[in-house]
Amino acid sequence: MRSDDVILFAEVAELGSFKLAADKLGLANSVVSKRIQRLEMDLKVQLLHRTTRKLSLTEAGIALLPTAKQMVQLNQDVTDSVTQLSSEIKGHLRVSVPTISGDLLLAEAIAEFASQHNGLRIDVKLSNRFVDLIDEGFDLAIRTGYLEDSSLIARHIIDSQWLVCAAPVYITRRGKPNSPDALINHNCLHYTYQTTGEGDWEFFVPGTIVKVSGNFSTNNAAALRKAALAGHGIVYVPKCLVYHDLQQGTLIDLLPHQVAKKLGIYAIYPHTRHPPEKLRALIEHIRSRYLAMAHYF
Fold first, then answer.
1. DSSP one-letter string for the chain
2. Residue 143 sits in the same domain as residue 287
3. The domain containing residue 28 runs over which residues?
4. For the chain: N or C, fewer Cβ within 10 A?
5. pTM higher than 0.85
6. Domain HTH lysR-type, which positions (predicted)?
7. What is the pLDDT of residue 195?
């Protein structure tokens, strides 16, 4: 049995509605329903009668409610006892960031934030692996893609557009593809950290995934960029990775406005009703730095 599920049950019982409890706590209605079902399974009893019109407590639910309310109050007491500490920007934060954004702006932005606040230390891990924030002790992660874990809070920062590009020397040697379908006749270098298959490239036209092939793949974005710059093939990458190369003409956008892939970049942190001020302030600082470089994305 999880104490946060018991606290959630108290909120549902008090408000008489999954939806009202979900709105109050910033959760999806389906998440509230699943967590109450989990609590009932853990306790091996039914706590609520559910109808299309209302919720009502079972005998077991009535018996549990006083203890659940005590847990709500205890949770608030714990929060109140550390309010002063949580409002101060000091202490320690562990942050996981992806390598592309980390190299582009996050490492500098986070170091800048730490230097602005005496007594604050931030440990940054650059990795494309989706870390388990709770089990591995991270306070914050910057992720590109989709949020699946309902126990985490996601703050949208910006969207990252992908594109297809190659070096002029490759285009001179192999020709320029004039449509997504033409890519099947080219050497397409693979980035293995795509959320879809590494050889599955998404386009608006023909409106499906084009399956490409090539003789080189890597999980390192910097290595992929270098291979493209050297003229070894065509790459499918986030715009921010090759922004300067496109401006300088050392890489060419081959199919502008045709790539369908655009992924959200999010600040992810464990669910809590009262995130520390240092965490909220760091997220806002990171977001402002992303928005200041929105043209890269």
1. --HHHHHHHHHHHHHT-HHHHHHHHT--HHHHHHHHHHHHHHHTS--EEE-SS-EEE-HHHHHHHHHHHHHHHHHHHHHHHTHHHHTSS-EEEEEEE-HHHIIIIIHHHHHHHHHTSTTEEEEEEE-SS---HHHHT-SEEEEES----TTEEEEEEEEEEEEEEE-HHHHHHH---SSGGGGGGS-EEEETT-SS-TTEEEBSSSSSEEE---S-EES-HHHHHHHHHTTS-EEEEEGGGSHHHHHHTSSEESSTTTB--EEEEEEEEE--SS--HHHHHHHHHHHHHHHHTGGG-
2. yes
3. 3-81
4. N
5. no
6. 1-58
7. 63
